[in-house]
Amino acid sequence: MRPGVLFVLIWLFWLFSWIAAAGWSAPEVKRVSTWDVWAYRALIIVGAVLLNHRTAAHLGLPRLWHVGLGGAYALAGVAACGIAFTWWGRLHLGKLWSGSITRKEGHVVVDTGPYAVVRHPIYTGLLVAILASAAASATATAVAGAALGWAGFWLKARMEERFLSDELGGAYALYRRRVPMLVPFWPTPKG
Length: 191
What we know:
The protein is mainly α. It has one domain: Four Helix Bundle (Hemerythrin (Met), subunit A) (Up-down Bundle), CATH 1.20.120.1630. It has helices spanning 3-20, 35-51, 53-59, 68-93, 121-137, 140-168, 170-178, and strands spanning 28-31, 102-104. Helix 1 runs parallel beside helix 4 (68-93), helix 2 (35-51) packs antiparallel against helix 6 and helix 4 packs antiparallel against helix 5. The protein is elongated, with a radius of gyration of 17 Å. The model has no long low-confidence stretch (mean pLDDT 92).
């Protein structure tokens, strides 16, 4: 199987399995709905369009570098590991998961499993998969798409941080001091 097909299958698996699993969550108690929500969504959507290898092909853009066949397979493995990390986060979160920034019925701070490594393992896994995909695509549009995707998920994570701090109070503040936001082993703010 060609690496390009493998990347498409990895992303399609994630997309369709993610959509199929959307019904596994507890009822919402409160949801963030501001214009900022549309900002992070727009960044992620535009980033995804730019990341798609067909975008550069339609624009006639050349590759910026070549990773070779072995490199492409290795990057597909990294992307698959990122997707696996998202699923570990989602399964560990269970009924508290939501595609939007929400507080669920019975919401508590989850700080075990992948949530002991980073506060947002789903975003971290997606960002790893996005970077691997952009590196394999090796086009200016893919690099721009990865940058927009990172910006969108960072913005969403920051909004979620503020929301959960307000909703869950001191327990979330303590968690924030112990565990990095997106990058494992990254220093956390003190105080």
